[in-house]
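FIELD: query
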Amino acid sequence: MQRVLHNALPGALKYILILVATIYVLTYLVLAYTRIPYPFELEWMEGGVLDHVNRILAGRKLYVAPSLEFVPFIYTPLYFYVSAIVSSVCGPGLPPLRMVSLMASLGCFLIIYLFVRRETNSAFAGGLSCSLFVATFRECGAWFDLARNDSLFLLFSLSALYVLRFGTHLRSFVISGILFFIAFLTKQTALIIVLPLILYCALTRLRYAMALLCTVGGLVVASTLVLDWVHDGWYSFYVFDLPQQHPIVGDMIIKFWTQDLLGPLAISCAMSGFYLWLQASRRATNNLLFYSLAAVGMVGGAWMSRLHQGGHLNNLFPAYAMICILFGLAIHELLGLVKSRRSASQSLGPGHVFAICIMQYACLLYNPFSLCPSVDDLEAGRRLVARIKGIDGDVFIPCHPYLASAVNKGTFAHQMAILDIFKSGKSDMKEALRDELLLAVGNRRFGAVLVDVDWFPVELEPFYIRQGDVFGQDEVFWPVSGWRIRPEAIFVPTEEDGWER
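FIELD: result
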């Protein structure tokens, strides 16, 4: 009887593993289906992204001189334009933007699956890598389906990596370069990712390295020149200059490795190291070089993004995707060693390998209900919009300007973009934007100002008086991803005369 149970245990553990992996995938799909129609922000910068898309739909330029009316985010423009195209077909609001991210995330899952399956000829290993990445949804900030550019950026980056790995002709490396360029047009981190891969090509096939380098470099330079010409030089200011001025968060130099990676993915990181060690011991130079340098690019890109102030968990996308790919490759190799009885420990069997995988999934367990807005959140948002609509004149909501523009109460810059300007080294630009803001406040231009944090009330005090709280409940209308922030206080103008500056 004991022998029968011993023989049946590996099969049972494998089915449990498949069930757990499937549950993670289904959970994400259900969450995305539930979250996409929500008309308000799931994360505090989604509304700012929507304002960018609406600006494109209105036929206006994205990269312009900073003003109270609009300051662009420090991202390249492709996601905004793709979302604008989808919005022109599907209608206004946040749901079309989230649909773009959802489809991009599904594309990422598919490429991870195909990547590992082609490398191993194992659907099981491919499914393992794919579902493990899906399981990192919460660890990535619950970001896959948000109206942000990260999922689309990762889709193009993984596509470029796939073509680079399995392409055999010169044109494959040109195509990979084009895909890396498109990834850069979605998020600048792609330039960090591609550099170690150019080195890989140089060490293996120099002619192909030149094709990759010239394609990426030529397209980036050409597009920058064109977009700078179209936007009177403002494109490179927002895309290159401003991001470099974000200060480094010293704690993240170490915490990225200890908390972001080893915290949730310690087992996967160990398996990744095992796979690279195995390639080195077998003298599989090409495999070792590709996956080592791909890991340097993907993990290094995530690390450098997380180091800068404001770098949130969404920047972990490329690191987690690469680790999940290596995890599937490692488990496939480990199962092969176990079955051939060439493992370092003869006592290690398939059941132990499946148990290790289950433990890794268990480390990623999360409560899906905490990531979905409630009916109370929806009703609170509707009451807030109705209240804003009933105010006479423009309404300034620095952290959520989309709420005002949605009901024709003025179009204004997002607080995050304004703060980026205030952090820049351009003193004249900072002073001009601050003067414009203070002049609008001093002249009581706004019928009301709704603030989230203690950034604006000091400037408001001489000209606006606090009317009260925005919400009467502590638990409603908080974003379920990212920074926990919502409109808290409403200020209305005093009756004194304005001022000129």
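FIELD: remark
Strands lie at 394-396, 446-451, 464-469, 489-493.
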